[in-house]
Amino acid sequence: MILKGLGVSQGIVKGKVKIIKSTSDHSNFEEGDILVTRITDPTMVMLMNKAAGIICDIGGVTSHPSIISRELGIPCVVATKNATQKLKDGDIVKMNGRSGHISRGEKNEFD
Amino acid sequence: MEGQDIYLGVRKMSLIDDYVDSMMSGLGSMDLTTLEPIDCFDICPLYAKEGVDRVLRIIKKSKFHNKKKLAKKLFTPSAIRIELLLLLIKAKIAKKSQEDLMKIANFYNSLLIAWCLEDPYAKNGKNIIHTKQEISKFLTHLKIANPDIARRLGKLTAACYHLSYSLYSDINPQICYENFGPYDVSDVFGKGHIMTIKQFHELKPRRLLGDKVNDIPCKKIRVYCVYKDVNFTLDALSHAIYDGDTINGLKYYALDIDGALVKNLNKVDFLSEKIAGESVKLWDELTSLDFENSKIRYLFQRCYNYVYLCDEIGIDWKPSNDMLKAVKNRNLVNNFWSKFKDQQKKLDFLRVLIDPRIEILPKLNKQKQQK
């Protein structure tokens, strides 16, 4: 396990990390990526629709990413404190939206 | 009857503990440092007196109006709860008397009692305004769902949530959205089935934003969902919490757009994209405002809560000149909550702050430079 946060939307998924710090990062986001950001905001609506999962540095069980991820039915972990620093673009991670655990995973693991 | 004493103007409010407990539960789950673009707690103190005085005038003019009718003019039960919360905070900052605190509390309490069929403060995780007969009628519209439909409806709902933030900013989007339920429909569908209703309304607030809303494709959306083995609760601020698989657990649905049931779900995909696009455009516009205009926009968004109620009682809904003057050329208060390092101390303070039975004068942090 490389990170732990608050699991706010259930589900287990693995995917490629994409760190989003500003709107200039949006264009490289691909369908199925794991969206990693400090906290989501309304400009990220398109990214959230494509994301397989969402990880945030801050937030609570009723914050923006938590509400949206539950509506989308995708896993979400918030309040990790430093996901945007510990993870890098292209990392393959496995995230558990119930337990809040994030671990490294190879893309073909469990395939 | 429960709540009757409030109509007699008696100080003791039978549901006051429910209000405090429920708001504390809702606020306790929030990260209060993430409200944007203008933090409602940071701007509150600037216009506390003027904002409360305006509402006291509204309460006075509303005295002989039907409470349920007035409640519906304030959009949603959650919008009423939040308005009560922020008003009581402002009233304490403005050093209003105990009598005024209870006047405010009694008024909004009477609206919630008149409208909600049970659990007026969502203390038990429910938001119930529909009768059994109304629910039975909704059930006749339902179609069979599947995971693909659940995901598409989820994207539509997510787009609408985003639009609500762009139109009204944080802690105000309850003007625009509400979750109702859970309604027990196990007698119709079998054990473990519940119905929720996700409602998005006032999606084209022309009186607030003028031509900026021209490209928003609809005014009101309602999504009816019947889930199996999914637990649904919501807090006093309409934050929906689902526990369970909402994709595979969605068994039936109906979609109503501007009063018409949608038969072809291809329309949903177009709407999701269009609404999402408009939400980004409007959010960019909102966050590009300079500081002075951001504060003005915030006041207009807050006051928009009252647009139809003010029409009903015959006064202007827009912020008063006093309110606008009160925020002009002034910095926001330092992050309201940042001085509390201990979460429990923060919650203890908050609990005292929002209780209308307790008169306190909170100390404010030194104002900081903004932007």
Give an overview of the whole structure.
- The complex is a heterodimer of chains A (111) and B (371).
- By secondary structure, chain A is of the alpha/beta class.
- Chain A has one domain: 3-Layer(bba) Sandwich (Glucose Oxidase, domain 1).
- Chain A has three helices and eight strands; from the N terminus they run E-E-E-E-H-E-H-E-H-E-E.
- Chain A has helices at residues 45-50, 64-72, 83-86, and strands at 3-4, 6-9, 12-20, 34-37, 53-56, 76-78, 92-96, 101-104.
- An eight-stranded mixed β-sheet of chain A has the order 1-8-7-3-4-5-6-2.
- Chain A starts with a strand and ends in a 7-residue tail after the last strand.
- The mean pLDDT of chain A is 91.
- Chain B has 371 residues and is α+β, with helices and mostly antiparallel strands.
- Chain B folds into two domains: 4-115 and 291-354, no CATH class; 132-286, no CATH class.
- Chain B is 47% helix and 12% strand.
- Chain B has 16 helices and eight strands.
- Chain B has helices spanning 4-7, 16-28, 40-43, 48-61, 67-73, 77-93, 98-115, 132-139, 147-168, 186-189, 206-209, 266-287, 291-303, 307-313, 321-327, 343-354; strands spanning 143-144, 177-184, 193-200, 221-228, 231-234, 240-243, 250-257, 260-261.
- In chain B, strands 1, 2, 3, 4, 7 and 8 form a six-stranded antiparallel β-sheet that branches. Chain B has a two-stranded antiparallel sheet with strand order 5-6.
- Chain B is globular and about 55 Å long.
- Mean pLDDT of chain B is 88; it is low at 1-12 and 364-371.
- The A-B interface holds A 10, 39, 41-43, 45-46, 48-49, 58-64, 67-68, 70-73, 78-79 and B 26, 29-31, 33-34, 36, 150-151, 154-155, 157-159, 161-162, 165-166, 235, 237, 239-247, 272, 276, 279-280, 283-284.
